[in-house]
Write a structure and sequence with these properties.
alpha/beta; golgi apparatus; Rossmann fold; two-stranded antiparallel sheet; transmembrane; 11 strands; membrane; transmembrane helix; glycoprotein
Length: 382
Amino acid sequence: MGCSGCRVRFNFGKVLSKVSVFFTMVLIFTYFFYCLTGFCDSAPRTLYSQQALDGDYDILDDRRRILGDLRPPARLLHDAPSHRNRTASADAEQMDAPGQLPQRVSDSANKSAQSNGIPVSNTFGTKRFPQAIIIGVKKGGTRALLEFLRIHPDVRAVGAEPHFFDRFYDKGLEWYRNLMPRTLDGQITMEKTPSYFVTKEAPGRVCTMNCQTKLIVVVRDPVTRAVSDYTQTLSKNPGLPSFQSLALKNSSTGLIDTTWSAVRIGLYAKHLENWLQHFPLSHFLFVSGERLVSDPAGEMGRVQDFLGLKRVVSDKHFYFNQTKGFPCLKKPEGSSRPRCLGKSKGRPHPQIPSEVLQRLRDFYRPFNHRFYQMSGQDFGWD
């Protein structure tokens, strides 16, 4: 009896196992059948994966479906402002990684996505090489220019200075591209690293990436710029020798020491000659650091025209801070509160002997005139 019971239980177990396998096969077959007939699209799934963001597989259909849900009514799209001349030549030469898809999303759809809590900057668009770079100069006003540009909805820029073309070129172009923010079609990717302008290898390296890149140089009276440069260094190193001892090779002869970086950066004509070996003058915009302070809206109008952007940044975005002596933003990007540049901007300069400043002006004068001729602009520094 005992053995007979064992056999019954054993046979029952085999039958139960076969039934389980049978039902499993039925479920698998049903799942594949529904997928083949298109019913799986309604099944829950992760909206975005890291592979999708990196462009490792084709997600065009999913994106179109999602963007279709986000797209506002046709009337709103019809009323959206049109944009002109969006750096078409730069886009034509853009080198996108295999599998990365350009995004065609209207500004209205972009705003709709943001209102629904979807992080558009991290979700949509493609990482591209910058179509425009602020290449110089140090202590000329490059940070102010970048912050003012970031107000524009069609500009996406790296906040920190990448220093790719002068310090980290050995990391490769893909490393550089991955630093860039995601942009939609019609938006411009930008970065700023002022030391590019004085780096001998930088022009050729930028051209290797894209010879259609637009280049912005913010220049300032080289004497004032040198003093500002020294002031910044002095704030970090209080034991620094005096300005005049660094600027002059010999106090008795009055010869200027051009090996000191604060002096050498102000030789704008010399540095521009290096860049013109790789880029035509039409690819440059020279922004006056002085006018960026006295008339920020006017200079920003020139910059927006150069980039092929609609003039969005205007007088309404600025107010002048009497204490700092700089224009400030009434409503910077992502904030409803006014904001000025950092504490380091508008720092008071040390007293420099007038005869030292005059020797510097005399030294820079021929270089300034040569720069006026090359750039086609008289900046009035003399």
